[in-house]
Structures are given as C-alpha cells and as structure tokens.
Amino acid sequence: MDVYKMFNWGLLTLTFGLLIYLGYLSSKYMNKSEEGGFLLAGRSLGPFVAAGTIVATGFSGWGFMGSPGVTYQFGAIEVLGNFFFAPAMMIAVLYFAKFLQHRALEMGSNTIPEYIAQSHGSGAMGRVLQGVSAFITILLLLVFLTSQIKAVGLLGAGWLGIELNQSAFLMVSVIIVYTMMGGLAAVAWTDTVMVCGMALAAVIILVQMLTSVDIGTWEASLNAIDPELLNPTTGAHYGDSIGTVFLVLPYAFLFASVLPYMAVRFLAMKPDVKLHKVGVYVAILGALLSLIPIVGLYVRMQVPDLADPDMAMPVYLERFMHPVIQGVITLFIIFAMKSTANSLLHTVASATSHDLRLSLFGSKAGMGQALMINRLAVLVLGIVALLMMLYAPPFMLSWLGILGSGTLLASMIGPVFISTFWQGSAWGALTAMLAGFFISGYMMLFSDVGWLIGPLTGCVVSAACYVGVSLVTRRRKFIQLT
User: Fold this and answer.
1) Whole-prediction pTM value?
2) What is the predicted pLDDT for the residue at 366?
3) Options 1.10.1740.10, 3.90.950.10, 1.10.443.10, 1.20.1730.10; which CATH number does 3-397 get?
4) Distance between CA atoms of residues 19 and 190, nearest Å
C-alpha cells in the first residue's frame, strides 16, 4: 500500500469515528417521545441543520457522481437542469414547509405514510392507506438506495484500492451503525457536517478547472467533439424538445416537497424555526453544489473516450488532482453520497418498522420495543439494499435514481401535496398512489420519452385521479346520506 492510500485510509478512519460519535450524541433524542425521537429527531432541527440535511440529501450522490456522468454523455443541458434544484428547494422551504409541518404536528404524524393516513381518515381505510404508501415507499426507495450504494462503492473502491463489493460493504456498515444509534437526528447532524465538506470540495474543483484551461480552448474542443454538447437542439435525456429541461424546476420543487425522505425534514424542524433563514442557507449551499456537473464537460474535453460516463468524476480526481487533494475531495464526495444513502435507509426503515407495523397490527409498541424494532429495520434493510446492489444488472446511476424517486413522487403528489391545499377522500388518495406508481413506472421502464416525462406524466394522472375520484366518492356519499 503506497503512502497516499494509507493517507486515505487514515482520513476515512477519522471521519468514520466522527460520524459514529455524532450518532452516539444524537441518541439522546430517543427519549423525546415514544417514536418521534428516532423518526423525527424530537422535532429539534434548527435553521442551519435543517438546510444542511435538505441540501446534502438532495444533491449528494447523483450530484457528484451521476450528474457529471450525464453531463459527460449529453452535455451542458444537464448543468442547466441541475441548477434548477437550488431555487426549487428554496421555494419548497419558504412556501410549503410550514403548511406540512403545522398540519403534521396537529395530527401527531411521525412519517409521511402516517401523515397520508391521518389526513384522509381513520379506521380500516386509514390503515390501508398507511400500508400501501409504506409499501410503495419501501420498494421505490430501495431501488434508489441501490444506486447510491453503487455510487459510493465505485468511488471508495478506487480511493482505497479495494474491490467494489468490499468498498460498498464498508460504507454501508458505517451508515447502518450511526443511523441505528441516533435515527433522524444522527442523519441530520452527519448530513450537516457532510454538506460543509461538499461545499468546500465544490470550491476546490471549480478553482482547479477554471485555472487549468482557457475557456475559449475548452469551448472549441467540445464543439469539435460534438456541437450538441454546448448547443443542444433537443432536450437529450429530458425529452425531444430543448424546452423539456425547464421541467426540472417543477420536478425539483415536488421532489423537495413530496418525497418522504425529503419532506420528513419539514416535520422534524423546530415548530418555531425561521423558515427564511432555512431558505437562505438552502439557496447558498444549493447554488454552489449546482456547478459540480461542469466536471463532466471538463473530462469530456480532456478524456473524450470514456467507456462508462459514470466514471467521469473518479477519472477527473485521479488525473487532474494532486493525490492528497484528491483524497480529501473524494472523502467529501463519499460524504455526499452517504448523506442521501443514510436518509433513504432511515426512511425505508421507518416505513417498515413504523408504518407497515401500524397498518398490519394497529397497536403501537412501547418506547423501548419501538426503538428496538426501528433499529432492527435499519440493520435488515441496509443488508437487503447491499445485496440488491451486488446482484443488480448494469444501470446508469442517475436513471435508476429517477426511476425510484420520480415514480415515488408521482405516487405521493396527491395525498401529500394537493391534500395540503385541497382535501380529498381516502379512495382518491389510494387511487392516486396506484395510478402514479404504475404510470410513471411503466413509462420509465418501457417507453423512450425522456427521464422527466414519465414521472411528470405520472404526477398529472395521479393528481387528476386524486381530485376526480375524491369528487365522485363525496357525491356518492352525499347521495347515500340524502
């Protein structure tokens, strides 16, 4: 093992120790309530921690690994699409978080599936809604988690000089440990530490690229390779029309507002948190991290014949950074991917241990028993996600991420987003979830309409089903009563 690999192992050991220590410190929130400590960090997140965990989770793995790969393949249109996430997240914080937070606090909702059930009635139908939404969440977020584990495994393998499977096992093991210890509080605190490192990495990367090559030469080289890289005539992976890239803005807004692993952060903020402060932090951090995909254009100019576009970031670090700086930045990127992976794992475990349990058995467990079940779910599902990554067929990281998150978004838009402003019925919520799930999933898997058209079409159909079925069932109920 050379000196630089030893340096990388030393960095990793120190930071793993820090993350586990944060998990230990955050375990005190386990005593805040029966399950709210593990599931919602005792509703204790302040402005900076809330913004840090939102941005870290939203930008992380796909932002540092998947998005540079997509930019390498399709060009600057991905940079524009990626940039829409920062304002979208800020808008979600400023104009939606308070509605969701207050309503969930009034009902005592600890998860998004529980929020869906409580806001659409109680009894048997409420349990059905909680169970169906939990099942959809588990299935689709495990798909997304698979892409995150592969991303962090790929990067860690080259950085540490070990095999992909060994790297993935190492990274997932640490995520499991601190998430089991501290629940959402551990996830949020570690995310905040990670996003600071991510921001520093973004600054270093931008300085290196902009000082190492003339912009005019960069432009001429890319145009010589493929004029579509800088001057696209289509929306590439977003759709046939170049205008489809602007669909990223509404998609990203709904992404931040509706997806269970994002929206749960709104529920976990302090009831009196100043949302304008959260929004400012989100805007600053998000805008900085939005520039990372430019790495894909830089590598396309320097190394135009990569067999695997997803290797754009690892190749960039290996060829264009000093080994010590490479080691530090790679650590920060691993942080980035971990921040989404731990959020996904926590949400999947919560949907399993809390929502499925309440849906199937109805009764709540005591605090000690519930905490044990929650922690056991983290362990089991972490192992399941690792096995899924090991045996999954080849896939592009960003595509798999959108398959999971986009389809989940289409499933949840009605009962989570629309219900905040217009209350539908339980049957409307159930129909909307199933319609969004099947429409988006089918279009992503079996059609060639672009990566955003499928989920957004699913959102439109799901929203229409939510409103339409709710109106029909209300009218039928009214007729029966009269």
Assistant:
1) 0.85
2) 60
3) 1.20.1730.10
4) 6
